[in-house]
Amino acid sequence: GFIGIQLAVPCPIPLFEAQARYLAAAFAAPDAALAPAADRADWVAERVARTEASGREQDLHYTTSDGSAWAYMRDLVAKAPAAADADAAPSWLDAPTFDHRLATVESVYRDRAARYPTKPWHDDAYRNVEYAVDWAAGTWTADDSRCAAV
Fold first, then answer.
1. What is each CA distance from 144 to 3, 66, 72, 141, in whole angstroms?
2. Whole-number Å distance between alpha carbons of 106 and 102
3. Model pTM?
4. What is d(CA 54, CA 148) in angstroms, rounded to the nearest whole number?
5. What tens digit of pLDDT does each residue of 125-137 get?
6. What is the tens place of the pLDDT at every residue in 15-60?
7. DSSP per-residue string spanning the chain
8. Residue 21: which of 36, 41, 3 has the closest Cα?
9. 100, 138 in Cβ contact below 8 A?
């Protein structure tokens, strides 16, 4: 995948962590890759062909061209094995709760996106919503009492 800041990234910090882990694992691999060269070349050729067919080169920089940004993050973490260093601090990416936590972040993001105005000049009171998250339970509440239109 594309390493860097893609367009329309919903939550950049988990994305950066997943990308960094994947890149570190790729550089640590014997041939500096987690996938054979032929697989990588096929992936690039398929993306280029799809982009040329659509005429939209900018789509190469969207994580959503192959699904969702959330699926992309999960895919990167799944493809990058955990570090074998016993002295290394554990990463939240290795925790059994990783997918649970990411699903909670995704759920909060989707709620925020649903509140987003349809036009730039519409009310942006959604920015005043305060979220309280119970990470262990994977639940959250949204307090929109400060969102009254001004």
1. 36, 34, 31, 10
2. 6
3. 0.67
4. 43
5. 888 999 999 888 8
6. 888 888 888 877 777 665 667 778 878 878 887 887 888 787 776 6
7. ---S--BT-S-HHHHHHHHHHHHHHHHHSTTS-SS-HHHHHHHHHHHHHHHHHHT-GGGGGBGGGGS-HHHHHHHHHHHSPPP--TTSPPPTTTSTTHHHHHHHHHHHHHHHHHHS-SSTTS--GGGG-EEEEETTTTEEEEE-TT----
8. 3
9. yes
Whether 29 and 84 have beta carbons less than 8 Å apart is answered as no
What integer pLDDT is reported at residue 107 of this predicted model? 93
Residue whose token pair is 């062909």: 49
Reported residue count of the chain is 150
Per the listing, tokens 């339970």 go with 137
- For the record, the structure tokens of 48 come out as 């280029």
